[in-house]
Amino acid sequence: MAKKNALGKGLGAIFTDLVDDASGKPMFSVCGIEELSPNRFQPRKVFDGDEEKSLVASIKKNGIIQPIIVRKSNSGYEIIAGERRWRAAQAAGMKDVPIIIREAEDIDIAEISLIENIQREELNPVEEAEAYQTLVGKFKLSQEEISSRVGKDRTTIANFMRLLRLPPEAKEALARKTISTGHGRSLLSLDSKDKQITTLKEILRKKLSVRETERLVKRLSTPEGKKKKQQKSSSLLDIEERLARKFMTKVNIRQSKRGGTLEIRFLSNEDLDRLLNIIIKE
Description:
The chain is of the alpha/beta class. The protein has three domains: 6-109, Conserved hypothetical protein from pyrococcus furiosus pfu- 392566-001, ParB domain, CATH 3.90.1530; 167-221, Arc Repressor Mutant, subunit A (Orthogonal Bundle), CATH 1.10.10; 233-281, no CATH class. Helices cover 52% and strands 13% of the residues. It is built from 15 helices and seven strands. The protein has helices spanning 11-14, 16-19, 49-62, 83-91, 106-119, 125-137, 143-150, 154-162, 168-176, 181-187, 193-206, 210-220, 224-227, 234-247, 269-281; strands spanning 29-32, 36-37, 68-73, 76-81, 96-101, 251-256, 259-264. A hairpin with a 2-residue loop joins strand 3 (68-73) and strand 4. Helix 3 (49-62) packs across helix 4 (83-91). The two termini are 27 Å apart.
């Protein structure tokens, strides 16, 4: 399977057993376009209209140059890679399409679809997060295993998956790309869905940058009473910041004459399991 440099290669280099035969020459077939069905694990839900129109025009003029990779199914063939070409071929009025038939397990299809879309930067943040969640939930892969397979840092994958905890309004804004993942991570620092939604509306209304959003969230997270308390030392704040980066959640340290307390916030049972895995492994 793909290693850390997976995204630096084409799909043919990553999944040679699916793309090429033993001789190194692709074996093409032709099938009726109605025999194909979409990839069940296709992470992409939104297809850009202008981009699709351009592809349709190209196929009308030149046909499909790169065959669609498929596997056999009960009703025909299921697409492994090339769903955009299949959709465009339908719009272009084609009756037959070139295919390469390969054997593949469900996890292979899910992985190929994710990597193909990441390479082309076609997924919005929510689609990418949901794809990672599929690999974790359905195929029981750890974040470390996903990191190795798709060529992204484990912390990056964890941050994407955390976005799924946002309220629907925020996830919709991420999908439309009216806010960025930076905005989304800032919203996660707020301790209630109502605060997250209210802050989201202000971000959209004022067109706040990520840095401006971080400052707003910090103000909202600091009760008026706490502002009057003694300020923490710079060294203690630095420790809190380092721990927050490590655990990817809010950390609070309180010192007293006889010791102190260390608080690590979690938002769900799943989040608690994630933190326990980090702490116990250490």
